[in-house]
Amino acid sequence: MLNMCDGVLLVVDSVEGPKPQTRFVLDKALRQDLKVVVVVNKIDRPAARPDYVVDKVFDLMMELGASDEQIDFTTVFASGLNGISGMDPDDMQEDMKPLFDAIRDCVDAPSVKSTEPEALQCLVSNIDYDNFKGKMGIALITAGTIKTGQPVALARPDTPKKTGRLTSLFIFDNLGKREVEAASAGEIIMFSGLDNVEIGDTLITNEGGGANAAEPLPPIAVELPTVRMTLGVNRSPLAGREGKFLTSRMIRDRLFKETDRNVALQVEETDSADKYAVSGRGQLHLTVLIETMRREGFELEVGPPVVIYKENEETGEIEEPFEKVEVRVPEEYSGSVIDLFNTRNGELQDMGLDDGGESMSVIQYLIPTRGMLGLRSELLTATRGTAIIDAVFDSYRPKLKVDIKSRDKGSLLAFEDGVTTSFGMENAQDRGKLFVGPQEDVYKGMM
């Protein structure tokens, strides 16, 4: 998505400052050599500390290797809820004009090489899907002009072209999009008519067989998934009681349809006709998909998450994904948090007290993704639900040659088919957490 930007607004909280996800997106923007306008939001909060937040942003940019021009960033203070902004936290205006002025003055206008039709170059940076128009590509027109009905091609270096004709063309207008007949360099467009469009393709003209077409741009790649789960038909004795969509065909169609717009998701067939391997960018990515399908009426059997290893092409070593985690927790629980991370082979990166005066400890760890599986619930239990946990993918690193215990307790299982009773649950509740209440059907082996 950053390939379509001319600059970025880095929005940070006036109290909390930069978070792990801030580091992730800022690093991507700096690598694209984009100019940054820092927006310190929620400046109206009583505990706001704008000077501290700006210093933290500066330190983060230095750590990420920003250029001198990027480090000399403009800072705007704002409250999105109240609709106020200003260049000084003590001198706020009752509108967003200072923010818009900063964008106009600090972000360069789009650079246009040519508007000639033959020079058309659009690097597809995102994909969407419409039930009526099919798969749609989203791209920034780097050069040239494009119009509806024009013969075009999708090209990559050293790859055969995929040809077709545009059936519809949209540009983005405020918060929506508007259909147009033509668009030129500098516009971000959405187009349909090429069902085999993929991220990284370059849209070029195919007039006259593409004899005078421009060369394709260097392609971009979608980041690979890090976690895999299996989803399939519910085969428990209680199947069919809650969902509307139960069959393997329905689940398969829904999963593969999701890949049309969810570009980081991968779905693969397995040896079983009733199960599918679904890979995504972390636990949250897959959790959102599962919850969305559940709300739509699907009934699923979900397997445990496992991390995806890969081999380093240069060294031949097996590598595993690591995550950077920040935990904000009351000071009295910091010892429990550290113990949990150490048992999962986490590496302490930083630790200190929050300067906000709330006796909160801020703990940062680098931990294997397989160590994070199931850790979030344990952290909340150990801290009485007070922990604020932020995690983001960091990198692939050599696999640790140790086994990480994901849990130190077993599960409570029903030993026969039947109905739960108050007497039986009263005896069981001292041994663990219960998922069911009295007078509910259970089957042998059910947790």
Give structural notes.
With 447 residues, the chain is α+β, with helices and mostly antiparallel strands. The protein folds into five domains: 2-106, 3-Layer(aba) Sandwich (Rossmann fold), CATH 3.40.50; 117-210, Elongation Factor Tu (Ef-tu), domain 3; 227-307, Alpha-Beta Plaits (2-Layer Sandwich); 311-398, 2-Layer Sandwich (Alpha-Beta Plaits); 409-447, no CATH class. 21% of the residues lie in helices and 34% in strands. Strands 10-9-15-6-7-14-11-12 form an eight-stranded antiparallel sheet, with no helix packed on it. A five-stranded mixed sheet has the order 1-2-3-4-5, with helices on both faces. Strands 16, 17, 18, 19 and 20 form a five-stranded antiparallel sheet that branches. Helix 7 packs antiparallel against helix 9. The longest helix has 14 residues, at 50-63. The two termini are 43 Å apart.
